[in-house]
Amino acid sequence: MNRRRHKFRSISESLMMLVGAVGLVVAGFVYADTGPGSRQAITESNAQQGELALLSIARLELEVPIFSGTSKKTLNRGAGLVEGTSPPGAAGNIVVSAHRDSFFRPLEDIRVGDVIELQSPDGMQRFEVGKIFITDPLDISVLEPTAQPSLTLITCYPFRYVGFAPERFIVRATQIGT
Which of 49, 56, 92, 99 does the annotation list as catalytic? Predict the structure, then answer.
């Protein structure tokens, strides 16, 4: 009986090691596809890649291309402009979304007063963070147009949550300068 337990435990341990190794390989492929894809999109032609702008926050060393839409493919390559919101370079509420466990991970350390830059073909826009809050995923008020030029960043929350996160992390910034 003891020998059977030992053999079962040995087989179980080997099986768990194999599952863990396969998981690491899959995760490696996902990260390998995401990182180089983003860097390539940053350096390649805007028109060819469909890149609308480049979002950067110097203090957080965050730099991510913004593409149109929020499809799975788009969010694996960079940040996505939420459909129906103002495009980079325009007035209104520019709403950008990205994954918390990749491109928007640095937002975990963002602070009121941080400066966010959007470089688009229309020029540079600078925004200052004025408000950071957590909301329900069904709260669409953050998508509404604004009277003054604004930038809203959306990602899932909590940042270190395993699985589908139950809330949304919102950064609201207003344009500074012209």
Answer: 99
